[in-house]
Amino acid sequence: MSDLRLNATQLDRYSRHVIMDEIGPDGQQRLLESAVLVVGAGGLGSPAIQYLAAAGVGQLGIVDDDVVERSNLQRQIVHGDADVGRPKVESAADYVAALNPDLDVDTHDTRVTADTVADLVAGYDIVLDASDNFATRYLLNDHCVLTETPLFHGAIYRFEGQLTSFTNERGGDEPRPCYRCVFPEAPEPGTVPDCATTGVLGVLPGTVGCIQATEAVKYLLGKGDLLEGRLLMYDAMDMSFEEVPIRPNPSCPVCGDDPEIESVGDVAYEGTCGISAD
Amino acid sequence: MEIDLRFFATFRDAVGEKERTRTVADDATVGDVLAALENEYDGLEGQLLEDGAVRPQLSVLKNGRNVVHMTGVDTSLEAGDVVSVFPPVAGG
Fold first, then answer.
1. What gap in Å lies between CA B62 and CA B58, rounded to an integer?
2. Which domains does chain A have, with CATH numbers?
3. What region holds the THIF-type NAD/FAD binding fold domain (chain A) (predicted)?
């Protein structure tokens, strides 16, 4: 029994978790001992950070190199009007500190690059991809495949969301695809416009980021069925969720039978995230 | 025969609708359909096929299964099949 490790305040704070058989004091303790890296403190990262913090994930790393802009506030709800101009990681860390004093928050006011990804991810149990660009998404995928780090994927476009979860546990009987199994290369820069160009429904990343956080919490608890091997496509306009099975691609450049990518140094991430010409 | 086509994200923008029914030859393959779409819509020209294969920047599904795991562009079609075309999206 480990329930005595939760103090009286924690038993109160997390009582709606603790009371459930699926979580209980042991599950809550597990959350408090977990470390999650959230890459991006924007539309997806905001709700994910909020719910992971509220759930008592004990160590929360937040990576973002942007400052808060007023146009972010329509959807990036971890930031407030007074935060405009501040680094997003600081604004998000302040929110978490006010919400839950149980947490240790690490702020990384930087961009994830092939040179920094290993140091940034080291020490965290899982990564939540709440980034806003293909370079970061392919880099996180490749690093997490190569290091067998679970990665929780969410992405948005106007009124649509795409979600899936990659445990990156290979070698077992279960098929474990990666992002490149579905999309071997990123679209050419400029062909899939970003939120600034196309607009985005403000509440859309709320739904998608919450699902990412749900998956992360389930994984940390070891409960439920993950979106592994399934790509969930959400259409806010139709209010429809569709699920597409995704399978490992034997010729996947990073997790296939004979992978070309053996290191993130092999990839030119600023282009289509294909293999470097050299 | 008739098949159903479904488009997501940028492909939805290029086609101007989420789904449509299209009449194709009885022996049409997935590749034939993609080539026809490239011809029909300016915004899709060069976006679906590359060197005779599905471009690595998108996924094409037949009835919810990636054609990569079948026979790619040579994957055969039957009346009523649903072909979905979607790109990765990066927004966050």
1. 13
2. 34-266 (3.40.50.720)
3. 14-254
Which of A250, A256, A156 lies closest to A211 in space, CA to CA? A156
Tell me the pLDDT band of A4, cut-offs 50, 70 and 90. low
b/e for A32-48, b at 16 or more Cβ within 10 A? bebbbbbbbbbbbbbbb
B43 vs A63 pLDDT, higher one: A63
Question: Are B10 and A192 in contact (CB < 8 Å)?
Answer: yes
Instruction: Give which of A240, A24, A254 is closest to A137, Cα–Cα.
Output: A254
Q: What is the DSSP letter of A266?
A: G
- Tokens representing A167 are 């445990």
pLDDT tens by residue, A219-258: 999 999 999 999 999 999 999 999 988 889 888 999 999 9
Contact between A64 and A41 under an 8 Å Cβ cutoff? The reply is yes
- Give the pTM: 0.94
Helix axes A204-221, A45-55, angle to 10 degrees: 40
Q: Tokens for B52, please give them.
A: 């005779």
Contacts of A197 (CB under 8 A, 6+ apart): none
What kind of architecture, by CATH, is found in domain B2-86? Roll (3.10)
- Token pair of A258 as six digits: 């004979």
Q: A91 or A189, which is more confident? A: A91
Q: What angle do CA A154, A138, A117 make, to 5 degrees?
A: 100
Distance, CA of B63 to chain centre:
11
Residue A231: name the closest of B53, B89, B47 by CA: B89
Tell me the chain B residues in contact with residue A62 when contact means C-beta distances shorter than 8 Å.
none
| Per-residue pLDDT reduced to its tens digit, A111-128 | 999 999 999 999 999 999
Domain range list for chain B: 2-86
